[in-house]
Amino acid sequence: MNNPEEQHVLHSIQKLANWLTVEEAAQQVLGYCVDGRTAHPIFGMLGGTGGALLRLIQAFVQSLPTGRDEALTEIVENLDQVLGICRSKIKLCTHTDNHALAKHEPTGCGYLKMYRDFSDDYGFPGADRLVSKLVEARMEADKFEILTGKHQE
C-alpha cells in the first residue's frame, strides 16, 4: 500500500474505528441509496436508510406468528412515531429525482418504487401502504436529495 491516497483512506478508517462508537457512526455516516449519483463517500444501501427501515419493519412483521396485517396497519398509522424513534438513533436519508418530480411521480428511488409496486414479489404483501407513507414523510428526513440525471446502479 504505497499509494498515498490509499494510505489516507486507511488512516481515515482507522481514525474512525478508534474514535467512533457504532452509535456515533450511525449519527455521522449517512446511509444513502446505491443509486450511484452521490458524489461524496457514502454508506450505500438499497433505498438509503428509508429502505433499511422498510426491511427492518418487514422482518419484524414477518416474525409475528399471527396478526401480521393488523401489525402492518398499526405501523403505517403510527409511522410518524416510528420515524421519530428511528431518527433518535440514525440519520434518515431519502431521495427522489428531478425527472420523477416533473412527471408528478411520488418517488424517484427505483428501489422504493419497485418495493411499492411489487410488494408481493418482495415477500411483503401490503407493503405498498408502508412505502407510500414513507415517501410522504421524506421531507422530514435528515437528508432529502433531489438527484439529477439517469440512475447509475
Search tags:
4 strands; 153 residues; two-stranded parallel sheet; globular; mainly alpha; 53% helix
Radius of gyration from CA coordinates: 17 Å
Mean pLDDT over all positions: 72
Beta-strand content estimate: 5-15%
Number of domains: 1
Shape: globular
Strand order of the largest sheet: 1-2
How do the SSEs run, as a string of H and E?
A: HHEEHHHEHHHE
Fraction of residues in helix: 40-55%
Please tally the β strands and state the result: 4
Q: What can you tell me about this protein's structure?
A:
This protein has about 150 residues and is mainly alpha-helical. The chain has one domain. About 55% of the residues lie in helices and about 10% in strands. It has 8 helices and 4 strands; from the N terminus they run H-H-E-E-H-H-H-E-H-H-H-E. The strands form 2 sheets. A two-stranded parallel sheet has the order 1-2. The chain has a two-stranded parallel sheet with strand order 3-4. Helix 4 packs parallel to helix 8 and helix 7 runs antiparallel to helix 8. About 25% of the residues are buried. The mean pLDDT is about 70.
Quick summary of this structure?
The chain is mainly alpha-helical and 153 residues long. It is built from 8 helices and 4 strands.
